Amino acid sequence: xxxxxxxxxxxxxxxxxxxxxxxxxxxxxxxxxxxxxxxxxxxxxxxxxxxxxxxxxxxxxxxxxxxxxxxxxxxxxxxxxxxxxxxxxxxxxxxxxxxxxxxxxxxxxxxxxxxxxxxxxxxxxxxxxxxxxxxxxxxxxxxxxxxxxxxxxxxxxxxxxxxxxxxxxxxxxxxxxxxxxxxxxxxxxxxxxxxxxxxxxxxxxxxxxxxxxxxxxxxxxxxxxxxxxxxxxxxxxxxxxxxxxxxxxxxxxxxxxxxxxxxxxxxxxxxx
Length: 272
Ligand SMILES: [Ca+2]
What we know:
Elements: E1 47-55, E2 64-71, E3 74-82, E4 85-90, E5 98-101, E6 111-117, E7 123-130, E8 135-141, E9 155-162, E10 168-176, E11 182-184, E12 190-198, E13 202-205, E14 213-217, E15 222-228, E16 233-238, E17 243-247, H1 261-264, E18 265-266
Antiparallel strand pairs: 1-2, 2-3, 3-4, 5-6, 6-7, 7-8, 9-10, 10-11, 12-15, 12-18, 13-14, 15-16, 16-17
């Protein structure tokens, strides 16, 4: 299963000529991610080791010098410098190197990807760009960077976490919009492949707002969830190949029962 993660605050501080001299705080925009809180600088940044990459980030046919440093005092802070501009950012379990990526091969820009994660081995990628005057955030993708998820067509295919029917990942697509931020394309339905065993009798319904159950399943029966809306509706298939809807009410009980999902089924597992 793909690893899912959460992320911490992002702090952006413009430091040098070409950028604002006045320290400013900002956060990575909400798009594929929750909007992280902002915070203020309390500790000086002491670069540990710096890695330099030479690449044209802004498409002006002049090579740009990109430096990346971790903070010697904190594993969670890092410094990105492009020519005379710098950003201090705060993440979590940050990788010690960056990757230059190209989200949209049809525009002139390339982006900087910084990997990170959390102690539970989950991953994330924070993405930045340089417009010739300023380094800014593009967004955070909840997955380790790889060539596969960045085909260069403005799209990033990634995985997000849901706890509906147990903790697992579902695929989402993020798009790079003209403001050079990533926005997630909302998708109502998720393809699933979750095997469950009934611990009680439950009804399956012909359609989502049906009033008469189509099939009554009994304790010990096995089903596979094929599709869900990650909230209340699941299209399931029985071991005999019959399909119907499993519906969860607003009270969290499986419709037609007095039980929640994890009381009604074996096979649902939650991560911390
Ligand atoms: Ca350049």
